[in-house]
Amino acid sequence: MPWIAPIDYRAADAAQQFCASLQRTGFAVLQHHPLSQALVEQIYSEWLAFFGSDARHDYAFDPLRYDGYFSPQISETAKDHQQRDLKEFYHLYPWGRYPSQVSDAARLYYRQGAQLAAELLSWVEQHSPAAIRAAYSMPLSEMIAGSEQTLLRVLHYPPLTGSEAPDAMRAAAHADINLLTILPAATQPGLQVMTEDGQWHDIPCDFGMLIINAGDMLNEASGGYFPSALHRVLNPSGVAARQSRVSLPLFLHPRPEVVLSARHTAGSYLSERLIELGMKPSAP
Predict the structure, then answer these.
(1) 2, exposed or middle or buried, with CB in 10 Å at 0-12, 13-18, 19+?
(2) For residue range 64-113, what is the model confidence (pLDDT) as tens digits?
(3) pLDDT tens-digit profile of 146-155?
(4) How far does CA 151 lie from the centroid of its chain?
(5) CATH assignment of the domain containing 252
(6) Taking a C-beta distance cutoff of 8 angstroms, is the pair 26, 193 a contact?
(7) Strands (E), 100-226
(8) Is the pLDDT of residue 278 over 80?
(9) Which pLDDT band holds residue 1 (cuts at 50, 70, 90)?
(10) Which of 115, 140, 144, 251 has its CA 20 to 30 A from that of 220?
(11) Is 220 inside a domain boundary?
(12) Does some domain include residue 229?
């Protein structure tokens, strides 16, 4: 039996199984979910071509709004790490710039993913213990209603060249900032999650699987009940090292004013973490 068993989205007890997995590991894997595999594959294909074109530079990221294209030279540096991750990516928001070189497939996927996200957050709230649920400042699904911060990131991990720094990784160990992350299987394996005993485990990457993990904001709002597990993307070896990897995480962010805890609103938490990631300058 795999370390984390896929859950049939259609099962009568899917919500209960989903939340039990999320609480135990910080991760859950859904199969037979409503998101279109064909749509995801279309996005992967056309955005891989976009990343291989000079057109990507026409959409260089906006340092105030954080939409657009992030080159490998300005990619994230995971907290407590020195080397930037070996990746480039594009930040898609409903209000943001959208490349004319690709179809509307990613916009359609964003809408479908946001609809599923609201359902999954309602599952989380429904199966939170009464004391935890009472501490939420509002229903979890309402935290993302009308949010302009929920982010679809199209991620490209370029082929390795052999000249990378010895300790550089496609994605060093990190936790996500947001409430939940929804991730269809990538074009290559490599995603791992750390369990409480410090062991790394592979996450299934079969097409048709949907990986969901809790982020730091859900951990904060639930008083630690839902863990925000460390995860990473390994550098491949052999033939795979000469191939690209594309993935499509949807990061569910509340509206900035939403209260997560006595310590943080969603806006204050996001600002703090962006500074830690080296993506936002610290206040003078």
Answers:
(1) exposed
(2) 899 999 999 888 777 777 788 999 999 999 999 999 999 999 999 999 99
(3) 999 999 999 9
(4) 9
(5) 2.60.120.330
(6) yes
(7) 151-157, 171-174, 180-184, 191-194, 200-202, 210-214
(8) no
(9) very low
(10) 115
(11) no
(12) no
Q: Look at residue 20 and tell me if it is in a domain.
A: no
Read off φ and ψ for residue 182, nearest 5 degrees.
-110, 125
Q: Does a structural domain hold residue 205?
A: no
Distance of CA 72 to the CA centre of its chain: 18
pLDDT at 43: 98
CB atoms within 10 A of CB 206: 10
**Tokens matching residue 96:** 């943001």
Q: How far is CA 145 from CA 197, 214, 241, 276, in A?
A: 36, 18, 40, 27
Which long-range contacts (C-beta less than 8 Å, at least 24 apart) are formed by 163-168?
164/86, 164/235, 165/83, 167/81, 167/82, 167/83, 168/83, 168/84, 168/85, 168/86, 168/235
- Domain with 112, as residue range(s), is 34-194+236-276
Work out how many domains the chain is built from and give that number: 1
Residue 196 has pLDDT above 50, yes or no: yes
